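Office hours follow-up: a student asked to see two folded examples consecutively, so here they are.
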Amino acid sequence: MAVELPALVRRDLGALVERLRHTRADVKWVEQENMHLTLKFLGEVESDRLAPVQDALRQAAGRVAPFRFTLGALGAFPSPRNPRVIWVGVCQGQPQLASLAAEVERQLLPLGFAKEERPFTAHLTLGRLRSPSPKGSTGPRDLCAALAAESVPPHTVAVDGFVLFQSVLRGRGPVYTPLSAFPLSCAH
C-alpha cells in the first residue's frame, strides 16, 4: 500500500529522472505513472484474505489524521557513493508518515503479516541499479556526481489517505492497479 502522489509531483520527479538518465548508469528507472510512497509491501495476498486486509487498513486509516509531507533531498541506498537504490527523501512530515506506517503494521500483524525488520524510512524510489557498469564506463561515477548536483522540486504533498495496490510484474516493469482507497479520518 502506498500514498499516491499528485500528477504535478510525478511530472516533476519524472523530469528529474530524465536528467539522471543521461548519466548512462545501468539503472531501472521508475516510470512516472508508478511513482508513489510505499507504506508497506505485502507480497502475494490470496483472494480470501483480501477482505480482512481491507478491514485492517480501514482501521489503520481511522486512527490517523490527515497531514502533509515535503519532499527532501536526493539520496541513495546504501550510500550516494555506492548507489543501489536512488530515492527522494522527505524533509517534513517524516514522523507522521512513520506513524501511519506503524499503524498499518499494527493492524496487519494479527493477520500474519510480519513486522518490517528495518525502521521505516519515508522515501520515493526513483530507480534501482541493475548492475555495475562495464570497466571503463563512466555511468556510476556520473550518477554519483548527478546525485550530488541535482535538486529535488520543492513540493508539499497533502496526505488524506492511502491506497492498496495490486502489483503485477511485466517485462517493462510493474503495473499497479488500485484495489481500495482508505481515507485518513482521525479527528485528533
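And the second, which I mentioned at the end of office hours:
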Amino acid sequence: MLMASNVTDRTKPKPATASGKPNRISVSSKSAERRRHLARAAYQALAEKGFEGLRMREIARRAGINHATLHYYFAGKEQLIDSVVDHIVQDLSIGRNPRVEDAALEPRQRLKAHFNALVQQMRDSPEMFTVLAEIHARSMRDRPIRSIFVKNDRNWTKFLTGILQAGVQKKEFDANLVPEVAAEAIISLVRGLTVTCAGRAELMQRPLDQLLTWIEGRAS
C-alpha cells in the first residue's frame, strides 16, 4: 500500500546516481508502478460500485495517496479509465493464454484458444467483464470514453483479422470470409455474450462454437 503524503511526486527530489545525476530509469519505473496501482484501485471501484463509485477522491483513498497526488498522475476520469482498460488488456491479458500467443499453431486452434480463454476468464474473473460493460455503457454517451473503446477495439480487430486472414490462406476458414468484417462480428458477439451470460460463463461456449463452425464454412 502506498502511503499518503502532502507532497506530490512532482515536487519530490529525484533519486541521484553516484555521479549526482537523477536516476531517470528508477524514477520512470516507480512512476509506472504507481500508475498501475492507481489503475487497479479504479478497476476495483468500478467492479464494486460502477461509475457511481468512480470518484477521484475515492480512488485516492483506496490507493493510499492524497487527492493532489492522484491528479499528478491522472488529470481526470478519462485518463484513469484509459489506464483501467490498459490494465485489463495488458496486466489481466483478456482473451490471452500461451496457446493464443503461439503463432506456430494453426489459425483455427488459435481462434478456438482465444474463445476458450474468454470463457475461462468469464468464469474466473467475472468482475473484469462487469467493468468492461460499465465502461462500454458509459461510452455510448461520452465521446472521450468512446475513443478509448475505439482504440482498444482497433487493436482487437487487428489481432483477430490476422488470425482470420491466415485461416483463409491456409483454407481452414471459408474462402468467402472477409477477415476485417468477420473480426468486427466476433467482437460484437463476444461483447453481447459477456452481458447476456453474466454469471453463467458456460452459456458462452455453444454460441462461440457455432460461430467457429460458420467461420470454417461448415453448415453445422
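Two things to take away from it. DSSP finds ten helices and no strands in the chain. The first helix runs from residue 24 to 49.
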